[in-house]
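User: Hi! I have a protein structure encoded as tokens and I'd like to know what sequence might fold into it. I'm fairly new to this, so please keep things simple.
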């Protein structure tokens, strides 16, 4: 890096760290207040609330980094403009294009840090945070259904070489990935119900097998109706055979990793987890729109740091001295908040209108990039 680039980088990184920790401290306070409603339930004490919020801090870093980059860069350039430092750089031959390239070069390490936090640190700490809460409360993952979690599981071929479709109802998913109150409804290739299994609990044994305990296995065999009555597809006749089993090994495409996505919101999952879950939904012919948008947002969001830096550069060309730093920083905060607002809003609009996931995820960033480039062109001319 050139000397002026090192100077820019040192100033921007120092301000960035300060802004990042200041905003994360503010969010920590708000999150802790929100957790106080749960304190006192079960074994959930104040210490657990502090630990849970602390474990959510990396995800807060991930959300704040683009805004922190924008505010820190605006602050640095506002200070330089107020002290005529940036004017000296321009007189020395620093063009707008060179300043933009230098600023993007400074932003690349921030993009890498954002990817690392979003893919490695954040998802892991969020799962730990949920497990701390669930274990302290002595509860399981809750869903919108009173009966628990419903998952579709499709096997291409069973022991008889036929395809099998199952609808699995998990009453409780515990933080250690064990399951309880399990109901499995198994259908043949013609979607005829052929088996119902009810298990008290289960744990994953690896290699695509679950070990279920306390199993009641009800096998259903379709019977032909009496000759005097016509066949009724809506009211079939079955013969049932019920077997009680202490243990049963079930082959399934479901894994604890697939079930564990219920512990973390899609926006806080890693791209690898999202990709695997989308594959599972696709294989089972289920809608993936929500998770497709989340995957593309995870892919493109770190580059929002570069967009925010482009937005910050026009502030270096404004020469008003009275209240310059405060006004510019306030403008940077408003720009950053509006970007977060539009980014979230477009996700919901894209999901409602079934827009392509890449367009839904990229559109807010492209709009703000165009705004930043337009601002640069305007200040360069004036």
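Assistant: Happy to help. Inverse folding works backwards from shape to sequence: for each of the 382 positions I chose a residue that suits the local structure. Here it is:
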């Amino acid at each position: 890096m050139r000397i002026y680039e090192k100077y820019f980088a040192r100033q921007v990184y120092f301000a960035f760290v300060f802004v990042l920790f200041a905003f994360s401290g503010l969010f920590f306070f708000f999150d802790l207040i929100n957790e106080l409603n749960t304190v006192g339930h079960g074994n959930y004490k104040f210490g657990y609330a502090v630990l849970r919020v602390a474990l959510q801090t990396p995800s807060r870093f991930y959300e704040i980094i683009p805004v922190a980059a924008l505010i820190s860069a605006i602050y640095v350039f506002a200070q330089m403009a107020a002290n005529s430092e940036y004017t000296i750089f321009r007189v020395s031959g620093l063009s707008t294009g060179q300043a933009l390239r230098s600023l993007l070069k400074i932003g690349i390490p921030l993009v890498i840090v954002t990817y690392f936090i979003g893919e490695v640190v954040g998802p892991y700490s969020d799962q730990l945070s949920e497990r701390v809460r669930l274990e302290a409360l002595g509860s399981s993952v809750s869903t919108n259904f009173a009966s628990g979690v419903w998952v579709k599981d499709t096997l291409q071929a069973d022991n008889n070489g036929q395809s099998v479709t199952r609808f699995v109802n998990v009453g409780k998913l515990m933080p250690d990935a064990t399951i309880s109150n399990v109901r499995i409804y198994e259908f043949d290739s013609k979607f005829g119900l052929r088996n119902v299994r009810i298990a008290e609990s289960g744990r994953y044994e690896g290699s695509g097998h679950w070990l279920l305990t306390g199993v009641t296995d009800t096998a259903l065999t379709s019977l032909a109706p009496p000759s005097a009555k016509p066949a009724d597809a809506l009211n079939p006749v079955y013969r049932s055979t019920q077997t009680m089993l202490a243990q049963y090994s079930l082959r399934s495409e479901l894994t604890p990793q697939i079930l564990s996505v219920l512990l973390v919101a899609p926006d806080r999952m890693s791209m690898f987890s999202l990709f695997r879950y989308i594959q599972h939904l696709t294989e089972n012919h289920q809608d993936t729109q929500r998770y497709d948008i989340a995957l593309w947002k995870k892919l493109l969001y770190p580059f929002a740091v570069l967009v925010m830096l482009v937005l910050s550069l026009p502030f270096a060309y404004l020469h008003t001295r009275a209240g310059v730093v405060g006004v510019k920083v306030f403008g940077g905060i408003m720009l950053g908040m509006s970007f977060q607002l539009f980014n979230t809003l477009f996700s919901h609009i894209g999901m409602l209108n079934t827009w392509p996931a890449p367009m839904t995820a990229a559109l807010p960033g492209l709009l703000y990039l165009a705004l930043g480039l337009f601002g640069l062109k305007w200040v360069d001319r004036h």
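A useful reference point when you look it over: The radius of gyration is 28 Å. Feel free to ask if any position seems puzzling.
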